[in-house]
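Reviewer 2 asked us to include a model.

Predict the structure of this chain.
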Amino acid sequence: MRIEQLEYIAAVTRFGSLRRAAEALHVSQPALSETVRNLERELGVDLLDRRRSGARISAAGRELLPHIMGVLDAVDSLRRASDDQHRTTRMIRLGTVNAATVPLLVPTIQAFRSNHPETQIEVTGGQQVDIHRELAEGGLDLGLVNYLQGDDKPPGLQTTELLRGRPVVCMRSDSRLAALRSVSVNDLLREPLIVMRSGYVMHRYVHRLLEGRNPAFSYSTDGAEMGKLMVAEGLGATVLPDFSVSGDPLERSGIITQRPIAGDVPAVLMVIQRPLSATTTRAARDLHAMFVRSAAEYTAHEALGGRRSGGAPDRSGGTVPIP
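Predicted model (structure tokens):
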């Protein structure tokens, strides 16, 4: 058994295909495939489930993956201790629903890159269900997703709360809604509404908020970033967590703003998740810890800053694990 065989398995698991793994490792696909097959013959198990659509970790491989990653982590520790200049550069794959990009995601990655210049980070956007599947299958190391307060959390993942906010209405600063102190459901129904596509927490919340009633006109889009751009172009208003709007460049420039929703609204949680099994690399654990610290600093800064622009209420938050 050779270390490169374990690295090849980890790469195929991460990238989801033999071709992409071979490109990332700068080896030919036939050579990578044969190396993996030799390891499977040596262990007596099929580590990969090979299909026409690509290669994924098999059920047997998933059971062995924690041990494989443990060996690779140990090798990394040895290489760092010996100051080996030829150690393998690591990559962390982070899935996100594209919320809290400005206040949390960007500054955390910037800080991480300063401390880990040789570690690459691949950020992929997706819906919560896709991120959960990739975390379970080993395709992602960490996931940033939203929940409404009271939602159940998946049992196979460790969930740590980062930010706690409230749904707000995001609109252009010259919108008639911007003249209101708070936006009622009836106000919202009279405006073109940009709604997150089915599968996002905000889609579920808006459906509950409107109670089956239809707005004057509606659009459907993926993620907060696209929603804010559509608002900035004057296509309508959208409902987002306040931490997705506060501090956004479009808000700082005065193009968009936010108003609270009238009445009682549930808390929206931004959490970070990782597999409960011991498959997370040391670099991914370091990034996880930096997200927790960044969230704590942001929450403390918001508490000191008082009420934010647009009249949105203050929020409280924490960084404690959610059972």
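Residues 142 and 274 are 5 Å apart (CA to CA). The first helix runs from residue 3 to 15. We have added this to the supplementary material.
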